[in-house]
């Protein structure tokens, strides 16, 4: 393979693989920004993948599949929102339960489609004109999924909402100091429910992308731990959607390289990198001013009770 | 929270053991009912399914021994987790701690060149230390740097998973295994004796029960156990009374990680006799043990019971796969449901909820 075709393949595959990571990470960023840690990403993604596949398979309409995937992911996340916001249960345990339940349900419900390909996948598109630019064109604008560009756009929009609008201020204040937010008239419970729901919808769409577009088929456990990479990415991105954009594609590149560089570097060690990097980031920002400016939302995992305890 | 006026909610000062037990059993029953609806939806009578599970797990010698085989790692890890959870350290990393224990034991078994009689003791010791190290490091990160324990222990699980994958695919891949991703089999001196005709490596089981008893005495009767509780329940008080948070966290995580490591030694030395793919070694014991410890309400002795219960559930997964043709993932559905009902029911332990009589209004 020549150098430029190698670069084109790397960028193009990185975009394709990074998209589900990005979608789910954006969702988790919003949930955690509002103070709710959701370790159920893997479970929501896999249910999204299954419902997306089965819908697209039954109707022949891939976009309907993506839509249903998002709806199922969102509905499923409400269990976690109910447990952690309304019942004030332990978020860590509730999130783990969500993942177990999602993996279990998808394994049982999906068995009849196990290994089936999807004949009506989401079509890849090429951007007219831009695809003609040498190297850049085929790398970024040829044979990609529309969802890739939607995800990138979404990252920018979600960054804008979080940092430049009143809604964003509400979300961040609920995650940092819910008592003050409450006294200023922000409904803490509603904000948290909505943010967890957004997280669920995006995780579901990410799963749907996997089974309807990226690898149009259903196999049990096809998310293969991606949900945990998303948890790592959320930290790596300092809970910032734009850094999430960078991080998702960076991790996706590592993942692609772990396959294309087999023989040079062992793929297992490369696939270990996201997790190690997440730890390195946590250790690096654990001290000093960085902690204040870029650390986790202060009220993360802490249930809010008005004027009690 | 707004409460309709026919309901009365008050804090329970100190829930009695019977209340806790009753509510826990209620949560499990509720989970079984929901799972039963699920069975019904698949055209399988829940009564038949549960009957099969009980018969398959407890109704024969094979059933009971397989249940106990599943129980062993859950017991070891669950007991350790009760100590970590008491110190309010969220050790989600038992899965990884189990795996590094398995790695350490395999390294000794295959490459140490030790004389036969020294192999097993060394494997247990290094397995304990490896698992302990995998727990103590995030413990120090939390105690010294304030880094979130949930995330670091979780990430370390995956580091351990890929470490095992790498070892069995590259440097430790057994030359005699013809392309499979296994190490060579251990020499017999590095394998654990099992009760004849079963897969119960009894030494590890005894070790687990002993650990449960000793840790129960430790948390209930000793100064250290008291300090663990104070650090968990009231870090401020701990600081004022001169209890070292670092010392207690390190101790709790050494015990928790170490016991998970021992569980890993038991699985490779007692069952597989080699290092192999991580999901064959563990089947998620490290995660299931979280429910085991949670259900035991962080009481090490109660873990003997709850670990057995989840041994039944895991065995039940094998049984219904054959008897009604539902996949093993039914176990995950069960586990998830039980966990949700458990944490959901905790509000009933913390609060007493009564319907107010009209006259009282």
Please supply descriptive tags for the structure shown above.
heterodimer, A: 309 residues, mainly alpha, ABC transporter involved in vitamin B12 uptake, BtuC, two-stranded antiparallel sheet, globular, B: 361 residues, 2 domains, 14 helices, 71% helix
Q: Gist?
A:
The complex is a heterodimer of chains A (309) and B (361). Chain A has 309 residues and is an all-alpha fold. Chain A is 70% helix and 1% strand.
What does it look like?
With 309 residues, chain A is mostly helical. Chain A has helices at residues 3-33, 41-59, 62-86, 91-109, 136-140, 146-164, 166-176, 178-183, 188-214, 226-236, 241-260, 267-284, 289-294, and strands spanning 124-125, 144-145. The termini of chain A are far apart. The model of chain A has no long low-confidence stretch (mean pLDDT 90). By secondary structure, chain B is mostly helical. Chain B has 2 domains: 1-44 and 338-361, no CATH class; 73-304, no CATH class. In chain B, 71% of the residues lie in helices and 3% in strands. Chain B has 14 helices and 2 strands; from the N terminus they run βααααααααααααααβ. Chain B has helices at residues 17-41, 46-58, 61-86, 94-111, 116-145, 149-169, 202-221, 223-233, 235-240, 245-272, 278-281, 285-295, 300-323, 330-350; strands at residues 7-11, 351-355. Chain B has a two-stranded antiparallel ribbon with strand order 1-2. The model of chain B has no long low-confidence stretch (mean pLDDT 89). The chains are: A mainly alpha (309), B mainly alpha (361). At the A-B interface, helix 4, helix 10 and helix 12 of A face helix 6, helix 12 and helix 14 of B.
Task: Write out the strand line-up for the largest beta sheet of chain A, numbering strands in chain order.
Answer: 1-2
Domains counted in the coordinates of chain B: how many? 2
Q: What count of structural domains of chain A?
A: 1
Do you know the CATH architecture of chain A?
A: Orthogonal Bundle
The portion of residues assigned to helices of chain A is over 70%
List the uncertain runs of chain A: none
Gross geometry of chain A: globular
Order of helices and strands of chain A: HHHHEHEHHHHHHHH
- Estimate the mean pLDDT confidence of chain B: 89
- Determine and state the CATH class of chain A: Mainly Alpha
Rg of chain B, please? 22 Å
- Termini distance of chain B? 20 Å
Number of helices of chain A: 13
Strand pairing plus helix content of chain A: what structural class? mainly alpha
Strands of the biggest beta sheet of chain B: in what spatial order?
1-2
pLDDT averaged over residues of chain A = 90
- The assigned structural class of chain B equals mainly alpha
